[in-house]
Design goal:
- By secondary structure, the chain is α+β, with helices and mostly antiparallel strands.
- The chain folds into two domains: 153 residues, Endonuclease, Chain A (2-Layer Sandwich); 157 residues, Endonuclease Chain A (Endonuclease, Chain A, 2-Layer Sandwich), CATH 3.30.870.10.
- 41% of the residues lie in helices and 24% in strands.
- The protein has twelve helices and 15 strands.
- The strands form two sheets. The protein has an eight-stranded mixed β-sheet, with helices on both faces.
- The protein is elongated and about 70 Å long.
Amino acid sequence: MITVQQRWTPAQIEIQYASEDIANVLLHIISNSRESFDCCVDQDEVALIIENEKLWDAIKALKNKGSRVRFVTKVKEGTISPCKQMTKLGEVFHNEKAKGTFQIIDGNDYLCYFMDDQGNAMLPQKHEQRLFHTNNKAFVSIQQCLFDNLCSNAVTAKEKIKEIERGIRTDFADTINDPAEIRKIVNNQIMSAKDELLLLFSTTNSFYRAMYSGMLNLLQQIPSDVNIKVLIQAADRTIDDSIQQGIRESRKKIQIQYLTKAMQKKIVTIVVDQSISVAIEIKDDTKKTFEEASGAAIYSNSELTVSSCISIFETLWIQSELEKQNKIKQAYFQMFKGFDLKGETYVRRWTSEQKRENSQFKMPE
């Protein structure tokens, strides 16, 4: 590590060269952060932040501590996936003018990265990364102002991502009748989940078919930070336990809710990242295989169709939670049924020493 200092006191301004030292400096400063982490990311380096496990874990720790985390970058087609990952940890903004990579921690430390090109007659051009770090208050304050302006004149990354996705592909709502093709689409969409996956099984048999066909095994291959919710119609408690066992074998971190009342329409619905939906009609619920039981499916990325599927799922999810709360209340009242708690009398027996102490005690006037 080479440290260059000119007329400034130590730690106010320093330039570091070694890549390992650069990483350690940033991680050390982040670990001591208590209030905020602001990061401008060059469009060509967005994926690198996600791939750097130590840095990503350090930013996650900041979120868990309650620190404010903000990213600003130029969102493009190739950075949609990592930008979606960043939205899980904080606010992400798109600004066409965002350039370069730098961080501001707690409004006190500024870190900036740049490449040093050194030509050599004997060797190919060498690229060495440098880290510029300063905690000079006046300088950091100016950079903080610039970062805040980038955010205030930006749009959210979610808005930009939707805009890009709409431009990449036109809305579609295809009716698929071939069960083999439906199954292929469902498997591909489940595997593509990056942020959220909603699964609705309107009958218990439809869930078992998905489990026996190996469809649920795909959940093991989905990134662990993808939020997965499964809603199943299952009135029998014994069936509930069996389903829980099957899902735990597929994936441990998963939210499951049950509906005791049968739904009017027998259907299986999959919603991926709030952008793609597949709604499959159950033609014959008595059949054992997915192909035999399935009817037509609606495969769509239409905002209206997808929003409708999400709305139905969320409504049923809330309904299942209310049913669960009612079951807990009934179990509670059943537990204390027959106990006349109001009629019980409690008597305290005083020892002779306690009586003597009480007689000597007087309330202050």
